[in-house]
Amino acid sequence: MFYHVCFVVPDIELAMDDLVRTAGVEWSGIREDAIGPWEYRMAFSRSGPPHFELIQGPKGSPWDSTLGARCDHVGFWTRSVEESAQRLTDDGFPADFSGCPYGRPYSYHPVESLGVRLEMMDVSRQSAFLDSWNPGGGSMPAFDA
Questions:
Q1: Omega of the bond prior to 50 within 30 degrees of 0, cis?
Q2: Is the pLDDT of residue 145 over 80?
Q3: From the CB of residue 59, how many other CB atoms can be counted at a distance below 10 Å?
Q4: How far lies 26's CA from each of 17, 23, 47, 53, 127, in Å?
Q5: Which end of the chain has the smaller Cβ count within 10 Å, N or C?
Q6: pTM for the whole thing?
Q7: pLDDT 10s digits, 9-55
Q8: SS3 (DSSP) at 105
Q9: Residue 97 — left, alpha, or beta (φ > 0 → left; ψ -120 to 50 → alpha)?
């Protein structure tokens, strides 16, 4: 089962507010981070799974929000990013971005028929995710378990 759906947005505060007003979503706050040459802002909903993720990224980044708001990816926990990425590549869905070279165990795989990417996130990051975004939240299964 997927654990989050991510939207890339040009105005993260506005998107958060709109989801609060329309769907009652509660947020864990905005975090600023960087990977490679890109600085970005992100937020996760407190409730879930599934969680909402919002990312506001700079031009040319994997989350280029200058292209407008969009559903970007659906995230899955996996026991092995490398094995899952290889399986998806073998099935015709090669990665268009991997965080692995930057020390982040995940990869994105576009599925054109859906208009979104699938994110394979190593389950070893789940405890840190729960501590940061959903304290007290229960563990979530890896899709390949």
A1: yes
A2: no
A3: 9
A4: 10, 9, 7, 12, 20
A5: C
A6: 0.94
A7: 999 999 999 999 999 999 999 999 999 999 999 999 998 899 999 99
A8: coil
A9: beta
Element housing 116 (H / E): strand 116-122
CA angle 69, 77, 84 (to 5 degrees): 100
Which residues is 110 bridged to in the sheet?
Answer: 117
Rounded (10°) CA dihedral 1, 109, 56, 23: -30
Contact of 127 with 114, CB cutoff 8 Å = no
> Element (H or E) spanning 18, and its range?
helix 12-23
For residue 104, the SS3 value is coil
Amino acid at 39: E
